[in-house]
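quick q for whoever's on today - can somebody do inverse folding on this one?? i tried earlier but teh output was garbage lol. tokens:
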């Protein structure tokens, strides 16, 4: 197990990202469909989230609720693994005090998020497009899978197509940065209040509370970027860029348009974040214990 020393954050992140993504993807599908809905007539009409689930399930069964899962289970675990790994590495350089100030956490998270987004954005584009393959559009060409979608984007749009939604996504790295900064601050405070060394293992209930509070806060603050990112990556509507997407959304739908799908995102993000962090923490400490035996 000595070979795993130094990679416990990476492996823990991959494990957490995989389990949470596989568990919560149907909620992500709903969030993407609601966020992309700017009123275009081709969009399916859902009266509620339950109605959406019923219609999707009626058309394609459980498989329909997992459209876009392949790029998600590739990109999300990789992103979380790299994020936790490089975040802790970068934080050691940006840290100016033993208490890891909030600003240092935010800076480390932003730098890490930007690097990872540059590597994984093509997968997020494919995820969005596969999630937006509507059941009632029988004449629309369907992607055969992740590889088929990647080939289609490359053939029709080139390299630029893989980086649609990149700018709002880059801005959106503050979501993970804010979440992780709040999470670490709460965890450090808890360790201090219990008289424990920093980064000591806490109870699962502590991780549950900290991950819930941090994710709720970051989602509300940064959700508009997710709407812009989804719409730019959608292949049904064309925008000239981020500013065009922003202005058209604001003009037609007002401020409310930037929060379409927020409820689905919150419903998804609470269990998603909790599962990710708990699996990450438990996997990390398991590897650390094995390395000491």
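ok took a stab at it. sequence:
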């Amino acid at each position: 197990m000595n070979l795993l020393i130094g990679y416990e954050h990476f492996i823990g992140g991959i494990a957490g990202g995989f389990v949470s993504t596989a568990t919560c993807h149907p909620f992500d599908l709903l969030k993407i469909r609601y966020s992309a809905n700017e009123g275009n007539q081709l969009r399916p009409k859902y009266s509620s989230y339950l109605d959406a689930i019923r219609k999707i399930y009626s058309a394609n069964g459980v498989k329909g609720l997992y459209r876009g899962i392949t790029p998600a289970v590739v990109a999300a675990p990789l992103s979380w693994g790299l994020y936790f790994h490089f975040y802790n590495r970068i934080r050691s350089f940006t840290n100016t005090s033993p208490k890891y100030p909030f600003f240092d956490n935010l800076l480390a998270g932003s730098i890490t998020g930007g690097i990872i987004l540059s590597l994984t954005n093509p997968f997020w584009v494919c995820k969005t497009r596969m999630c937006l393959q509507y059941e009632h559009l029988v004449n629309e060409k369907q992607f055969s899978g992740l590889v088929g979608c990647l080939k289609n984007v490359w053939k029709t749009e080139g390299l630029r197509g893989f980086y649609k939604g990149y700018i709002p996504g880059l801005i959106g790295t503050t979501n993970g940065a804010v979440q992780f900064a709040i999470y670490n601050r709460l965890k450090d405070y808890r360790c201090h209040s219990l008289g424990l060394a920093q980064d000591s293992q806490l109870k699962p209930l502590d991780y549950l509370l900290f991950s819930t509070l941090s994710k709720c806060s970051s989602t509300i603050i940064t959700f508009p970027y997710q709407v812009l990112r989804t719409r730019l990556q959608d292949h049904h509507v064309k925008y000239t860029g981020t500013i065009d997407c922003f202005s058209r959304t604001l003009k037609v739908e007002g401020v409310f348009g930037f929060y379409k799908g927020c409820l689905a995102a919150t419903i998804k993000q609470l269990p998603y974040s909790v599962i990710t962090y708990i699996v990450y923490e438990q996997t990390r400490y398991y590897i650390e214990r094995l390395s000491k035996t």
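fwiw The two ends are 9 Å apart (CA to CA). also DSSP finds ten helices and no strands in the chain. so keep that in mind when u check it
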